[in-house]
Amino acid sequence: MNRLAQATSPYLLQHADNPVDWWPWCDEAFAEAKRRDVPVLISVGYAACHWCHVMAHESFEDETVGALVNAGFVAIKVDREERPDVDAVYMTATQAMTGQGGWPMTVFATPDGTPFFCGTYFPKPNFVRLLESVGTAWREQREAVLRQGAAVVEAIGGAQAVGGPTAPLTADLLDAAATQLATEYDETNGGFGGAPKFPPHMNLLFLLRHHRRTGSTRSLEIVRHTAEAMARGGLYDQLAGGFARYSVDAHWTVPHFEKMLYDNALLLRVYTQLWRLTGDRLARRVARDTARFLADELHRPGDGFASALDADTDGVEGLTYAWTPAQLVEALGEDDGRWAADLFDVTGAGTFEHGTSVLRLARDVDDADPQIRDRWRSVVGRLLAARDTRPQPARDDKVVAAWNGLAVTALVEFVQVAALYADPDDEDANLMDGVAIVADGALRDAAEHLAGVHLVDGRLRRASRDRTVGEPAGVLEDYGCVAEAFCAVHQLTGEGRWLELAGGLLDVALARFAASDGGFYDTADDAERLVTRPADPTDNATPSGRSAIVAALSAYAALSGETRYREAAEAALSTVAPIVGRHARFTGYAASAGEALLSGPYEIAVVTDDPAGDPLVAAAHRHAPPGAVVVAGRPDQPGVPLLADRPLVDGRPTAYVCRGFVCQRPVTSVEDLVAQLT
Q1: Are 587 and 579 in contact, with CB atoms under 8 Å apart?
Q2: For residues 322 and 391, is the Cβ–Cβ distance under 8 A?
Q3: What distance, in Å, lies between the first and last C-alpha atoms of the chain?
Q4: pLDDT tens digits, one per residue of 76-105
């Protein structure tokens, strides 16, 4: 029976025609397992996952395997991106049992959802043997299976518990986190750790803010070196912009080719802020082209940002992206083909598979002579046109609330910085202006989609597709990332409704997700009950729900002037602080939010009739300390608390700067404003 045909998840739809009799995650599936007295097979993955596709092709599309599953189990297919709460619980169980995790995740559970055997990818012969062994154990060793399940639940309950030690997140702890990151830094290749190497976007955001507060040249150098290494490597798409999920090696050469919305949103923030702080040309280019990738490739008008581009094309990973020297010559001609092979390090031996290479930038172009840059731009345009004739990777067009929030916030920052550095004499001025215009439209469209489609009766839903929202409830990261995005849109537009929407989401979070120790659970108190209630404080591929809600609470407190939201942010950070000093690599977004709170955060209001062109507004954005909020508009503009009761001084545009709810004197000159901010 096809129970997945009406799913909003592209991943579930990929499995709708399998011979496995899949159920979506629902109470009815567990009731059916109880009625039949059989175990539950829970298979968790996502649409852009390469090894999920492999296991599907080998096993779930196989009639023999399907018959074996259907005879002995109730099979449930879960999209981890649509149900991160389910994924979190069973991933913790998988890690507890095996010492590692990943996707596809394969879990066997009792009819009440208690996991008793967990793993990841299994080749078909191993999977068949596993199905037979689990079925035999369930029939003949039931008591041992139940004991194993009870032990796993006890272990994961402890791993996800709240109520641990708390401490203020002080400057000393943040300095210690920066020091720890410096000791773990890969001095040769940039980034942290070995292969596979993931882009450390949240750590880089923290280090940028740490540099801004402390003046640490070491923190800035780590960011600059890592940003350049990633942007020159195969991790970054040298033709169309945008970053792949991770590098399979330690030096960013060969990526795992899926492109995720959340990675590109967070990396856009890194390159945008690096550009803002240093004026670096490479950071400027990568920020521009990553914003263009988001707006052109992942944005769907009226429907927000899609989740990902697939790792595979026609079942082959990297088919769209890899090149040989001969293919370069075919696309460019003999001279430019050889020149491009040298520029992009495409060799006869190849850096990828079957003698092909992933393009990486082996020579500097951003500071090269104008004729070199012109030739490079011509080559890139022609190669991209040639690549567009190849088969293209599939797109997961599911719209995830939290990830769209991250993208909206990143694009707001990009649009603001692009306006700061607008230079009509720059050779790429028209391109930058065009990208900024398209990015502005895309972020506003996505924000409207979140407000109009994902917000249902005052509560967020996790995912939508084709402008139809799914049933799964939003989790804490959705509330945090979307509220932070609404705060960003409020600052960009001066429209009060965005701040009102952010406040409503944060009130729900405080009422439904808060724990007694000041921390937060990842699911609401009225959400579906799982075998444990997840409450993970660590940042991984995306900000933890706790970090995201802290960032949103901090921004909202600064914009609204309501201190209780700041107090909630500080209390939540105190539950993460004991981890920050010991595990800095897994608390980057929390540490970044901590830097904002430590600096004030600054509240900067500029009363002016020309928010777009006033030099005071430009100075405010250019020199704003970490986590500062900036609003500009007419005095007493409706819905903008920071402009209330703040008049022009002597009829001139005026800046009002406050820090931690303590205000300095109003100023009317750029020099005086900069002095207050530095």
Answers
A1: yes
A2: no
A3: 65
A4: 999 999 999 999 999 888 888 888 888 999
pLDDT digits (tens, 9 = 90+) for 522-558: 999 999 888 888 998 999 899 999 999 999 999 999 9
143 — pLDDT class (breaks 50, 70, 90):
confident
CB atoms within 10 A of CB 367: 10
Q: Is 462 exposed, middle or buried (0-12, 13-18, 19+ CB in 10 A)?
A: buried
C-alpha 211/C-alpha 224 separation (Å) is: 12
Specify the amino acid at residue 371.
Q
The reported pLDDT for the residue numbered 233 is: 97
Phi, psi of 320, rounded to the nearest 5 degrees: -70, -30
Region of residue 255 (phi > 0: left; psi between -120 and 50: alpha; otherwise: beta): beta
Type and span of the H or E element at 577:
helix 563-580
Global model pTM greater than 0.90: yes
Place of tokens 């521009």: 288
Beta-sheet pairing, 40-45 with 654-659: unpaired
In three-state secondary structure terms, 509 is helix
Q: Which of 227, 608, 615, 667 is nearest to 419 (CA)?
A: 615
Dihedral (CA of 395, 396, 398, 401) sign: negative
Q: Is the peptide bond before 196 cis (omega within 30 degrees of 0)?
A: yes
